[in-house]
Design a protein that fits this description.
- This protein is α+β, with helices and mostly antiparallel strands.
- Helix content is about 55%, strand content about 10%.
- It has 10 helices and 4 strands.
- Strands 1-4-2-3 form a 4-stranded antiparallel β-sheet.
- A hairpin with a 2-residue loop joins strand 2 (about 175-185) and strand 3 (about 185-190).
Length: about 240
């Protein structure tokens, strides 16, 4: 029972250590804790939130350690119990290991250490990480007011058979930009605002949330209505 209690303390300490590390990379605490437990136990790591880790280079490295730690920890329990049954439990080594893990956790709770470690993470990303390696949220959605909209055009959309210049007057003055138009297998990047839109086109739009939702309110409603009728997901807003 003592061994199991000590091992539980080690597991909880490791969880909290990696929650702090993931938090320093910009991940929310509640998301971090769930994903850390998921990776250690090998269960539940197929949620949409896992993309926040898989699409981030530093978080991927932390995730690799956690997955391996979770796999080997079971072997440690089995081997330790076997050794206890055959030779007796060596408490000294276990207490040393437990103390080391708890010490790391306490050090990471120090605010100055966390700030320095956060700076190291961000510096490593600036030096070694390409923009294409980062998840969409870390590139575009840095602020709460940012919005990335994947807008589908239907036959009853207000944008159909019109250009952006015709449909959205003075768009240059708005905090809204069209990134590209997807037309079948073709992705259009040139002359976006003068390209006449057709049914089936898909637009990737980036801007301030309130502006995008206000200017394109009618087309977003039409998209949701059509998708609901076809039993598709009701929103493409990221």
């Amino acid at each position: 029972m003592l061994f199991l209690f000590i091992y539980l303390v080690i597991i909880l300490a490791v969880i909290e250590i990696f929650v702090i590390l993931f938090q320093l990379t910009g991940l929310k605490v509640e998301v971090s804790r769930f994903q850390v437990i998921s990776m250690m136990t090998g269960t539940g790591f197929t949620t949409g939130e896992s993309e926040l880790i898989l699409g981030h280079p530093i978080r991927r490295k932390l995730a690799i350690f956690l997955i391996l730690f979770g796999a080997f920890s079971l072997a440690v329990i089995i081997s330790s119990i076997s050794e206890f049954l055959s030779k007796g439990l060596r408490a000294k080594e276990i207490f040393i290991g437990t103390g080391a893990v708890i010490a790391v956790f306490l050090v990471l709770k120090i605010e100055s250490v966390r700030r320095r470690l956060a700076k190291v993470f961000h510096r490593e990303m600036k030096l070694k990480i390409e923009l294409a390696d980062l998840p969409v949220r870390d590139v575009f959605l840095k602020n709460k007011e940012d919005l990335l909209l994947h807008l589908s055009i239907y036959e009853d959309s207000t944008l159909v058979h019109r250009t952006i210049n015709e449909a959205i007057r003075e768009h240059d003055e708005l905090e809204l930009v069209v990134l590209f138009i997807q037309r079948g297998d073709v992705r259009i990047h040139k002359h976006l605002y003068d390209t006449r839109l057709h049914e089936g086109d898909q637009l990737l739009i980036y801007g301030v949330k309130d502006v995008v939702l206000t200017v394109l309110h009618e087309d977003i409603s039409i998209m949701k209505k059509n998708q609901k009728n076809r039993e598709l997901p009701s929103s493409h807003i990221l």
